Amino acid sequence: MINQLRTKLTLAYGGILGAIFLVTAFFVFNVLDNNARETVTNELHAAAATFEQIWAMNEVNLHQHVEIAALDFGFREAVATGDVPTIESSLSNLRDRLGVTRAFLILPEGRTVEAGLSGATNTPSSVLSTLEDDPYAYGMLEYKGGNYQGVSYPVMAPQQVGWVIFASRVGEGELSQLERLSSLDLTATIQLTELSEVNTDPGILTTSIRLNGFGGSKDAELTLSYPLEKGLESFREMMKVFGLLSLTGFSVLLCSNWFISNSLTNPISELDAATWKLSSGDSVEIAVRTNDEIGRLAKNFNRMADRIAEREAKISEISNSDVETGLPNRRVLETYIADYPSERHYCVAFKFARYTNIMSTVGQATTSRLVQKVGGRVESAEIVLAVGQTSSDTICAIIEADDDTQAYRLVSDMLGMTGESVKIGNDYIDIFLVAGIAKNDSCENLSLIDTANAACQQAMAARQDIIIFDLAIYGDPSATLSLMSEMLVALTDGTISLAYQPKVNLRSSVATGVEALLRWEHPEKGFISPDKFVQFAEETGHIRPLSEWVLGQSIEDFLCLQSFGLDVQMSVNLSGRLLTDDSFTDWSLEALGPLAHHFCMEITETAVISDPDVALVNLNKFKAAGVDISLDDYGAGLSSLTYLKQIPANELKIDKAFIMSLAESADDALLVKSTIDLAHSLGMSVTAEGVETAEVLAALTAMGADVVQGYYVCRPVSFDKAAEFLLKKAPAIEPDKHRGASNIRST
Amino acid sequence: MRIFFFSILSLILPLCASANGFTVKVTDQSGAPVPNAVVMLEGANGVPLGAQQVVWDDKMTQKDISFIPHVLVVPVGSAVVFPNQDRVRHNVYSFSRGNKFQLKLYGKEESRSRIFTKEGIVAIGCNIHDQMIGFIRVVDTPFAKVTDNNGEVIFDTPEAGAVQLSGWHPESKHKSDVIMNAELADSAASITLNMPPHNKRNLH
Question: ipTM of this predicted complex?
C-alpha cells in the first residue's frame, strides 16, 4: 500500500506519461513499420511490373525474330528438304544476329537441330507434344535443366515442316540484372510450380508474377522477395532517436514530477507529523514558509494548536481545583499519590466541625473564603507535600512521617496553627478542626484519601481532635452492607435476644429492676456489639422495628417474671431518634397498656437536644402514662442543667466512666458525689453503672447512691439466669406496693 | 470456289450414269465424311484392273489467293498447269522430294505447267502468300479420285475382283496411306482416316 502523497502523485503522473509514451511509441513504430512495408511492397510491385514489362517486350522481340526466321524462304527450303547442316548454320547465323540464347528447329518426326550443335538430336517428347498442340507456343520453357523464355513459330513449306524456337535464358545472371533494376536489394527467384507456395514468413515481403508455361506446360512463378528487416533499416535510426528522446523526456518528467510533488507534499507531511504530535499532547509550531493555501493552513494550524493548549490549561486548572474555593481538589491529591508513591506517606483530613452551622450563619461565600484561607494555611505548612479539598468541609494533605507517632505529633503541631480563628473582613470566625490521619496501607478497601476521611469521622464520633485511622473501629464495611436485612431476619429467628442486668437497691440490697440489653449472636460473624448495629439501625431507619421488637420481648419477659411472682421494674433503652416519633410513643403506650407503671424508658440527654420540644412532649406522654424516665449515661455527653431540669426523669444514671475510676480519682468522686446530691435535690433517684469492685460499692453507698448496676452485682445475663437471680434477690409482689422502682426499700 | 464445285459436279455426273460404279466413302474417326481425300484403287497383289481412266483433271488454278482444287490427283508423268486467275502474281513452289520445283513470279492470265515424273505427294505453296497451300497426289494407278463433299468417290470399275484401297488426306495423322482390301462386287467400301479435330483442319 502506498501511503505517501508524493509517491502517489509521482506514480500517477509517471504512469500517465509512461502510458502516453508507450502509446506514442507504439503508433510511431506502427506507422514506421507500415511505411516500411508499404515502401517495400510498392518497390516490389514496381519491380514486378518492370519485370513483366521486360518479359512482355522480350516476348514480342523473340516472336518477331522467330517469325522472321520461320518465314525465310531459303530456311524453309532447307527445312522442307531436310538439309540439316544448312538449317544449323542458318539457326546459328540468326541466333548470333538476333542475340538470342538458343535457337532450335524441331522437326515433326522428333528431331531437333540446334544452333551451334552439329547434327540432329532427339526432341524431348514434352516439347514436341506442346508444339503439336500449339505451334505458336510461348512462355517459360524448361529445356535441359535451364529456364528460358521461349517463343516458337511453325515452319510452313507450305505445309508444316517443323517449328523454330528462339529462347532467351532466364537464369541467375538475368535475374540479378532484374534485381539491379530495383532500388531495393531484392531477391528474385524463379520456380516452376503448380501453385505458388504461400509465403508464411511475415518478416519477408514478397510479390509474385505468374509466368505462363511454354505452350500448355507448367507455369512458373517469379518471386520477388525482400526482408522487412532491411526495409526497416532506414527507419531504425529514426526509431533509436525517438526511443532515446522518449526515455530522456520520461526521466526528466519523472524527476521534475518528484520534485514538484515533494515541494507540494512536504508541507502536508509536516502538517501530518505536527497533527500527530498535537494529538499526542505535545506542543507544536509549524514554520510558515509560503503565503498560499498551505501557508495559511500552517498559520491556522498554529493558531489552533495555541487555542487547544490554552483550553487544555484551563480545563486542567478547572479539573484540578475546587470551583468555589479555588483550592486544589481531590484529583490533584490523587495524581500526586499516584505519581510519587511512598511508604512514608500519610494523609491528613482536616474537617470543619459545625460546618453547617458556619454556613448557615455567614453564608456560602464567606464560608468558601474561610475554607480557602484554612486551605492556604494547610498548604503553606512546611511538612505538607500536597493539598486537596476533598469535599466542601474537608481539606486533605499529604505529609511524610516515619511512624504513626511522628505523624500524630506533626498533625498535632499543625492543628494548632491551622485551627486559629480566621479573619474575614473585620470579623474573626472561630473554627474547630478535626483531623483524621491515615497511612498508606491502613485499609485495603479505601483509598488513602477516603481512609483519612473515615478517620475524620472516627474522630468526630469519638469527639477527639486527632485520630489515627482505626481499622478495628471501622470494621468490615462490606459486612455492614447486609447487616440490616440480616438484623430483621435475626429478630425472628432468635439470634437477637435480650439480656438482663439486674439493678440492686443499695440500702435494701434487693433487686428492684432489670435493664433489658440487646444481644446478637450472629451465626457467622459471632457476637455483634449493640453499639454498632443499633447505631447502624438508627442511621438506616431500622431502629423502629428493632425497638418494637425490644419492647414486645421485654413485655413478654416481664409478664413471665410477674408470673413468677416477682415485682421488678423493667428498664428499656429508648433511642433518641424515636423520642421525636410521636407514633412510636403512641404505639408503645398502647403496647404497654396497664404495664406502663412497671416500665422505665432509659434515654440520653443528647437524644433530647436534637429536637427538645417534640422529645419533651413525648417524654411527658410516657410520664403521664406512668412510665418512668431514666436519664442514661449522665456526664458522658453534653450535660446541660437546662435539660436536666426540663426532662421529667425519675432516675439519673451516672455514666460508668465516672464510676469505674471513682476509687482512684478524687475529682471523679467529687463529681459523683455532687451529681448524686444534685439528682436527689431535683427529686431523682441515682443509679450508678459499672460497679465492679467492693470499694466502689462502698464509696457509692457512702455517697448516698440509691441503686447500683455492674459486674460486681451481676453481669448482663440471659432471661433465665436473670429470673433465677431475681427470685433470690427480688421482692415478691405485694399487692399494696407494686410501684417500687424508685422506692427505697429496707430489707 | 463455285467453279471448283461445278468442276467436281461435271466430273461426277458422267460416273453416276455408270451401271457398275464402286463407291468408296471416306470418313473420319467420328464417322463424318472427309472431303478432299484421295482414294486409290489397285488390283490385289498387283494385278492390273483393266482399262485406265480416261479423264484426268490436270489443272491447279490460283484464284482468290488459293489453289483450286485444294487436292489434285494426277497420274505419273502428267503435266499440270498452274493458271493464275488472280490479279496478283504468284510464285508457286514445292519442296516435295522428287517433285521439287519453283515457278517464278507470274501474273494474271499467265499459266505455267510442270510435269510430275515421280509418284508421291507434292505440297504446293506460294512463296509470297503463305496461306496458299495445295496438294497434288501423283499416282501410278488409273483408279484414283478425290472425295467430294460427302466424302465419296465412285469408280467405274471392272465387274469384279479383289482390290486394294488406299486412302490419303493431306491433314490426316497417318504417316502413310491407309490401305485396305475390298471386293469390287460389293460395289461400295469405306475408309476411315484419323483426322485432326474439325477446328484444326485447314479445309473441310
Answer: 0.75
